[in-house]
Amino acid sequence: MSRRGRRSHRARPVLRAAALACAAALFSAGCQQAGDDTATGAAPRPERRGHLVTTVVTERAPVSTQHERPGTLRLRRVVRLYAEEEGRIEQLDVFEGDRVEPSELLVRLEDDVLRAELDKARATLAQERLDLKRFQDLAARNAASQDDLAQARTALALAEADLKLLELRLADTRITAPFAGIVTQRFAEPGDFVTKNTQLLTLADPGSLVAEIYVSELVLPHISAGDPARIRIDALGGERFAGEILRIHPTLSEANRQARVEIRFDAIPAGARAGQFVRAELATAAVARLLVPFRALRQDRDGQFVWVMDEDGQAARRPVRTGLRIADQVEILHGIDAGARVITRGFLGIAEGEKLTRVDDDEGPSLATPDATSEAVDSMP
Fold first, then answer.
1. CA atoms within 13 Å, Cβ hemisphere of 231
2. What's the mean pLDDT in 63-88?
3. Burial class of residue 167 (count of CB atoms within 10 Å of its CB; 0-12, 13-18, 19+)
4. pLDDT at 327
């Protein structure tokens, strides 16, 4: 055996003895510590805590919300002017964008034929009046029968009707403005021959400009005609213009369950034009709502639900039906009641009936609904 091998062989018993000594020392220290704990009466280690969560206690509270909806400016009063007589256009001096006054002449058609027929009708009427006078004189002397007198009266009535009809037709060759407005469309030119019911012009009342938006069926019960509103026109900058709800249409779209709402301005701003994009803000009356933080809402293939901590401190799943989303909270319509302790964090690994431990500072009921909010409100799908 080499010198190195003999040296290693002699060292092994020494290492084995050192390891046994260390083990004995550790065992002795542990026993001593256990004896000291028993002697001093130290409290036993605490039990293992449950699943850690944060919660909030819900309460119903009045919430006044504001809803921002996109829309379009539209003219409510628009008139399409048609030719009621056929003929050649002799006068048409207005163009798109021109302002017109009430009763201002816009279109004049040629009327030579109608004037000739009108002169003939006047002559016929004069003759029928003379005939009636003659038959009345003859009847007074018993020289004419009552039938002759009745026929003369009928002929006079027909002549008067023909004259009135021609006067109306002659008046129809002149088209005037029914109100003060702006010409928005022109479909003909002077010299054109037009027939009856041919559209010539479109006239709009600029004072009838309204903002037209669409509102969800969830919001409709909380607004009414006359409620204040604010309108922002993107093309005119960030200024908000005061207005009020003018009309809520009675039917909803089957595609999106929304109704059309018209909002009029208190004063129509300069530069506002039909077709411009707008954003309208509607304020609803305060309504008692049960809200929970939106992060507490869960969803799977069975639908929406929340986790709550029951009276025994255990996790319980509650299916819910939601309403409006208000800022970072969501309205609960069905599924939980006021006073429920809803879990807001700590969902990872949570299970039905699992023991829970709260780590938030909520020592009692905590109001989850604000008294009012000015945040935008969206309808939940």
1. 30
2. 92
3. middle
4. 79
Residue 158, classed as helix, strand or coil, is: helix
Higher pLDDT, 57 or 286: 57
- Domains, the chain: 53-64+287-379 (2.40.420.20), 67-76+209-283 (2.40.30.170), 85-203 (2.40.50.100)
* 150: helix, strand or coil: helix
**For residue 340, with 0-12 CB atoms within 10 Å meaning exposed, 13-18 middle and 19 or more buried, which class applies?**
buried
In whole angstroms, give the CA distance from residue 230 to residue 245.
10
8 A C-beta contact, residue 128 and residue 151: no
73: exposed, middle or buried (Cβ count in 10 Å: 0-12, 13-18, 19+): buried
pLDDT for 50 equals 83
Separation between Cα atoms, residue 352 and residue 331, nearest integer Å: 24
Comparing 34-43, 62-71, 221-230, which segment has the lowest mean pLDDT?
34-43
Contacts of 245 (CB under 8 A, 6+ apart): 223, 224, 225, 226, 227, 229, 261, 262, 263, 282
CB 52 within 8 A of CB 346: yes
- Residue 65: which pLDDT band, with cuts at 50, 70 and 90? confident
Do you know the residue count of the chain?
381
Q: Report how far residue 311's alpha carbon sits from residue 338's, in angstroms, rounded to the nearest whole number.
A: 14
Q: Could you give the 3-state DSSP secondary structure of residue 95?
A: coil
Q: What is the rounded (10 degree) CA torsion for 241, 246, 250, 255?
A: -20
Most confident range (mean pLDDT) of 31-35, 49-53, 358-362 is 49-53
Among 88, 101, 105, 110, CA closest to 189: 88
* Cα distance between residue 330 and residue 348, in whole Å: 21
**Residue for token digits 């819900």?**
58
Average predicted confidence (pLDDT) for the chain = 84
pLDDT above 50: residue 219: yes
pLDDT recorded at residue 12 = 52
pLDDT at 251 over 50: yes
